[in-house]
Amino acid sequence: MRKTYQELEFKDAFMFAAVMSDAESCRGVLERILGIPIRKVMVHAEHVLFVNPETRGVRLDVYADDEHGTVYNVEMQTTDNKNLPKRSRYYQGQMDMDALKTGEDFARLPQSIVIFICTFDPFGRERYRYTFVETCREDGELLEDGTCKIFLNTKGKIETGIGQELVRFLKWIGEPDAGKEKEENDLLITKLRTQITDLKKNRGMEENYMLFGEMLDEERRQGQKEGLQQGKMDILLKLLQEHKIDVKTAASIMGMNEDEFAKAVKECQEV
Q: What integer best gives the mean pLDDT of the chain?
């Protein structure tokens, strides 16, 4: 069952995107993750798109860049779909396409970092942070292509190589009501808590969340409908192959004429 708007936490994708659309909050989170000072961050509103009633589109990752031109894509992940490595590759490609105009020199591609904050261990090795860069398999030499992918784990146990501030931050994301005493003096967590409280008072944002839920339900219904249609088509194709039904009957069952059915069969065979 979907949470109500008032129940949302920072780890919920909608609230995460809402909070991170604020440049100062985004800058603070990036500084905490990377462990380096960032003077200024620009969040691209066209990428932090909660809901688009016209296109019925939903996007809840955060796209930003800093004063050095480094580009960031940050996303919260609460479900382990086993596809994050490929997803990071897709985001990397999208960032490069956005950054480079047709005909421009590849040298103009900016440094880019893809970050996933996960409420599960994406690689099962109990680390709080997994950082990947391109290297030569034969000698370990860095490729230096300007790309980096970071996967954070709120359920980590191995603290080697990362600061206590990041550990505390990740623990707060995973269990926001635990360890409040330690978090009271953490300025970033305090700021994010306050922002979440303020956002929950925003009626317009709450309406946006309701529309977001409706769109997700519509996508789910459409997916189920397409799945049923595909299942029906698979059965009819099997019956056709076994000569237990003719094309005219199969097309009628699918609510198509014979030409439409033939086209649908061709598309199925090409998938």
A: 86
